[in-house]
């Protein structure tokens, strides 16, 4: 099976051109391909498929083999791949994803993506709390009360503001919050330190992966919640361990601008 390895701010992916729709990978095979010792190694894997309703279709799978509706860094890499390989012959197009239509624009070596609108409805995120919005709720872990907000930006995201990101126990709390009983399908967990009204630092414990160098939908979710709390306006620079993303709001649509780079291409027997 031929593949290309790409990365967006160090969030890395295996991309397979399956326009002939001949490839069907079971969960265990995806997990093996993404394994950093027994396989290629990646945070996720994407299949390129034809779409009946938009220009192209993206299927996304996490490192553990679970399918997810969307991936922000992944969709930038996906868009760059299909454009560079001339599978799609325009630099602005629409991708069919399980989270709906996602519209990227290739701008030199960067990709700007209209990520659509955030969904605050707990039933859609989903979060098992009887409220209209999940803002500044409390969950307790090992006797520690944690204030959190949750929102759907393609996939479920939980946002926790902290005073000092470097000193916060992200690796201990991330997996416990990811699988907390409030989140029936799990959640991505974003730990955020607001620097000022224009800059934010964050790190994400990703559902189905663990700590990653960047999370695109997470950055969009963080910007959404911080804007909802009126801590930022309609544009923010987000610093992630793997690099920076610019997130801006046009009306209620979320736009994400960031890099997407090919690392290498290869072939593997699976
Ligand atoms: N792990 C996420 C999907 C990938 C999200 C992340 N890689 C991004 O860039 O948005 C989930 O299961 O919801």
Automatic annotation (TrEMBL):
It is found in: Cytoplasm. Pathway: Amino-acid biosynthesis; L-lysine biosynthesis via DAP pathway; DL-2,6-diaminopimelate from LL-2,6-diaminopimelate: step 1/1. The active site is at 71, 71 (proton donor), 215 (proton acceptor). GO terms for molecular function: diaminopimelate epimerase activity. Its EC number is 5.1.1.7. It is an enzyme of class 5 (isomerase). Homodimer. PANTHER family: DIAMINOPIMELATE EPIMERASE, DIAMINOPIMELATE EPIMERASE, CHLOROPLASTIC. This is Diaminopimelate epimerase.
């Amino acid at each position: 099976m031929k593949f290309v390895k790409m990365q967006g701010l160090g969030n890395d992916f295996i991309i397979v051109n399956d326009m002939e729709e001949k490839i069907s990978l079971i969960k265990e095979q995806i997990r093996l391909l993404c394994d950093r010792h027994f396989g290629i190694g990646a945070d996720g894997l994407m299949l390129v498929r034809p779409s009946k309703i938009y220009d192209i279709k993206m299927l996304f799978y996490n490192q553990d083999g679970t399918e997810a509706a969307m991936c922000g860094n992944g969709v930038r890499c996906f868009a760059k791949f299909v454009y560079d390989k001339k599978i799609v012959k325009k630099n602005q197009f629409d991708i069919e994803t399980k989270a709906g239509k996602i519209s990227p624009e290739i701008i030199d070596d960067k990709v700007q993506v209209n990520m659509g609108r955030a969904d605050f409805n707990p039933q859609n995120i989903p979060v098992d709390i009887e409220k209209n919005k999940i803002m500044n709720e409390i969950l307790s872990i090992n006797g520690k009360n944690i204030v959190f907000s949750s929102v759907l930006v393609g996939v479920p995201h939980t946002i926790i503001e902290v005073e000092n990101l470097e000193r916060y126990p992200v690796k201990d709390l991330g997996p416990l919050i990811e699988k907390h009983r409030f989140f029936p399908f799990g959640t991505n967990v974003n730990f955020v330190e607001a620097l000022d009204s224009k800059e934010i630092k964050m790190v994400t414990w990703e559902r189905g992966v663990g700590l990653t160098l960047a999370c695109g939908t997470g950055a969009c979710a963080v910007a959404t919640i911080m804007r909802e709390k009126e801590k930022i306006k309609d544009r923010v620079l987000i610093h992630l361990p793997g690099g920076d993303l610019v997130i801006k709001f046009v009306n209620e649509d979320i736009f994400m601008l960031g890099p997407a780079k090919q690392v290498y291409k290869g072939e593997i027997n699976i």
